[in-house]
Amino acid sequence: MKTTSINWSNTILAILSGLLLTGSFPKIGIDWLVWFALVPLLIALKNSSLTNSFRLGFLAGLAHYTTLAYWLVYTMQTYGNLPLYLCVSVLFLLSSYLALYMAVFSIVVKRLCPKPGTCLFIIPCLWVSLEYIRNYLFSGFPWGLIGYSQFNRLHLIQISDIFGVYGVSFLIALSNATIFLVFLYITGSKWKEVRIKKRLAGGSIFVFILIAGLVFIYGKWRIESIDDLISASKSLKVTIVQGNIKQSIKWDPAFQTATTEKYVNLSLLAKEEKPDLVVWPETATPFYFLYDRLLSKKVQKGIHDTNTDFLIGSPSFVRRGNIIEYYNSAYLISPDGRVCEKYDKAHLVPFGEYVPFKKWLPFIGKMVEAVGDFSAGQEGKTIKWNNCNLGLLICYEIIFPELSRAMTKNEAVLLVNITNDAWYGRSSAPYQHFSMAVFRAIENRRSLVRSANTGISGFIDPVGRVMDSTSLFQEKVITQSIPIIHETSSYTRFGDLFAIACVVVTLIFSILYKGKK
To answer: Which of 39, 88, 173, 349 could form a disulfide with 124 if both were Cys (CB 3.0 to 4.6 A apart)?
Structure first.
């Protein structure tokens, strides 16, 4: 009976950790929860075997990712036309895959921390290592890295221009490790039969306060220094158009003309502002631009009447012999209707723009309406505009740090994210998606413009401040002068060296403590 009680207690603690993690992200957005969210799981691991540690980590991950990514059920059922039971099954499979990372985290912490003191740096190094691996493995899905929960804490997240979002994740994991060690000391509990000494608990607090203090001081100084650059820099006037086209009618031929005219008419409202660039969302034109001549002429006439450059999202295709390749694209169009540049999306959405493992998943079709799978464009490609380069990120390309970094290294002075988040309805997904864009601006010290069909659209400056933004599901036209600076951040230069260092440290400890229990 006693053993059963302990197991149930540990199970509840693991699930609590998962729920606390979810609560720190939008929409709930209680971001301070993440600073101790892992502590219940770590407490549960204290007296658990390696097998149970894996199980508890998996439960924590399952609780977290099913509640964080619940919106997938709505998206797949509404636009993928899948039955509810299959939507729930797919969510469970994805959440189970992501939960494996927390399961590995749990078992490795239990394995690689023979003494309590090692927890202080093994926990954050391991956590960052797994986040970094998740960014790349199986095409990558770095949604909900714990650092993203702090997108509103500008003084804390300025370190992203050195360490990327992983630096913020490290600080959060360090906080959890510190609180865990202090908890063990206060309660007189042991870690692997070793009692926590006052010196270790006090030292852990000192180390965390020291690092957090340095992070805050750096953030304050960096904001001031970047603001000085902004005040001395030139600015560009950009208009974003949020058409608010329902996904259910977006690709209906009966509404193609009305959708096109709506975007044209909304753009004309900005003419008096004399913007340098007007940005439409991903696939704003629900047809193949330049191929459908009548609708293309409507767009070109609207651009001519607005008398400025336009960046518009549109599907496109290229014939190569007997093969037709389809792309999710963005066109840069001059006032005379001429296409100046074109960007093709490089990182495609699994099951949205192509179906991986088709042979084994024949029952799952794509949710994006097009003929055949989309092809990927060139990673890191920028487009030339007015003697400068633009970095285009279509849809969820914004969640991959390496893509915006590659574009900035290719001399992009402005990052532009065009997306269609209508797929997510009024769920938490559009808020989570938008929050990640803040880090791309800080990491590369670039202004970022975001145009979304149904929202959230907005402007983010190089410090990560949201200069202006829209609400969900409203027609909106916003024009904003945005600063253009040419600062090259350490992150842009060197990339994820910090995350890689965490992986190396974790591997070294794995070798050193191989065979130890």
So the answer is: 173
